[in-house]
Amino acid sequence: TGGVTTIDPGYKNTGSCESAITFLDGEKGILRYRGYAIEELAEKANFLEVAYLLIFGELPNAEQLAKFDKDIKEESHVDEDMKKILDGFPKSAHPMGVLSSLTSALVAFNPSSVDVDSDEAMYNAIVKIMGKLPVLAAWTMRKRKSLPLDYGDNSLGYVENLHKMMFSRPNKAYETNKVVNDALDKLLILHADHEQNCSTSTVRIVGSSHAGLFASLSAGISALWGPLHGGANQAVIEMLEAIKADGGDTAKYIEKAKDKDDAFRLMGFGHRVYKNFDPRAKIIKKSAEEVLGDLGIDDPVLDIAKGLAKVALEDDYFVKRKLYPNVDFYSGIIYRALDIPTEMFTVMFALGRLPGWIAQWREMRLRKEPIGRPRQIYIGETERSFKSIAER
Ligand code: SDX
């Protein structure tokens, strides 16, 4: 048979590891990073603090946070030859494919990031990618907009600097905006980790072969790209735009989502673990209303989203299957309000998930987990003899 008697497609009922990083309770809609409730962290912490907490296990004191910030800033440059790789892509290339490629290419310019057999080597690889991924993400966006590839300003905070690298213009002073900065910081916190989801499991299994942190992250970025996973935040906005173009006919799309003969799914709805509201969706929905209000934006797509959620949450098909809005359902509405292009939404998810992926990879390496290598049930041909081409 190939060694096992039962399989578990999609690992719906399989645990892959023990982990002390993130706790989810799907029935109660609970999400905690290292024991701290996501609601508290989203309100009281900043993204770099949460990144430190996830990776090293404790909230940093002022000295630890200052050192982490400084070490990351010292690594927030990228070898100039990386621009030649970025240059090779057509402007139409999807930013997730570009980011995954550039992340893997980083290994060539940072060979010491592969062998992390000491705490120091591991720490150095971690601060390198924490510093460089935001640059690569911003450059990916600037390439599409035919803007010069430049750096931000290390006097700014981590998230503010990311925003400046994405949006600065050569001929216009960059103005920071507290509403924008706080919204982005909160969104990155809410995306920072989510136990053994598809992309994190990918990072762990690639890392389990000791392929190195950057190669593992490159694989994780590719897994996140899929519309059933992180790519859903882009798919949600495209769906809401389609409904808007269709005269706001949400009922038609609800019926399409229920139709088994139609591949269409209500994007941003449903979750493998949450069989209740995704706690992140609750916070993001509230934040979307606040941000649009503060920025004086009246986005009809938010109203369509709320209308769609209301109908779906009362529809037997969704109620029976316990399908609720997930993290991706409202996040795109905030990204839009921040003028982030739709095709960059999943890149923002990747930037948020970066510390979670790193934390999970580090835990896997420190616990010396074995290489991931599941078995199968063989259902192919029994033994048969070779036929020459004349006999076929
Ligand atoms: C993320 O895992 C994580 O933690 C992921 C994430 C993270 O932080 O890392 O939370 C981020 O990826 C959120 C999910 C984003 N994806 C989407 O919004 C895409 C739409 N959602 C679905 O494709 C789906 O709900 C999944 C992929 C999220 C979960 O899929 P499962 O757990 O494999 O569930 P399933 O496909 O077996 O569905 C169970 C039933 C099926 O119907 P029946 O066969 O029982 O009749 O529910 C139906 C499905 O057809 N269903 C949906 C639906 N989601 C599930 N029907 C219509 N629309 C949907 N969105």
UniProtKB/TrEMBL annotation:
Assigned GO CC terms: cytoplasm
Gene Ontology terms for molecular function: citrate synthase activity
Phylogenetic lineage: Bacteria, Pseudomonadati, Bacteroidota, Flavobacteriia, Flavobacteriales
SUPFAM superfamilies: Citrate synthase
Record-linked InterPro entries: Citrate_synth-like_lrg_a-sub, Citrate_synth-like_sm_a-sub, Citrate_synthase, Citrate_synthase_AS, Citrate_synthase_bac-typ, Citrate_synthase_sf, Citrate_synthase_typ-I
Keywords recorded for this protein, A-Z: Transferase, Tricarboxylic acid cycle
Pathways per UniProt: Carbohydrate metabolism; tricarboxylic acid cycle; isocitrate from oxaloacetate: step 1/2
Known catalytic reactions: oxaloacetate + acetyl-CoA + H2O = citrate + CoA + H(+)
Family: Belongs to the citrate synthase family.
Native source species: Aquimarina intermedia
PROSITE patterns hit by this protein: CITRATE_SYNTHASE
GO-annotated biological processes: tricarboxylic acid cycle
Catalytic site positions: H271, D328
Protein name per the record: Citrate synthase
NCBIfam families to which the protein is assigned, alphabetical: cit_synth_I, PRK05614.1
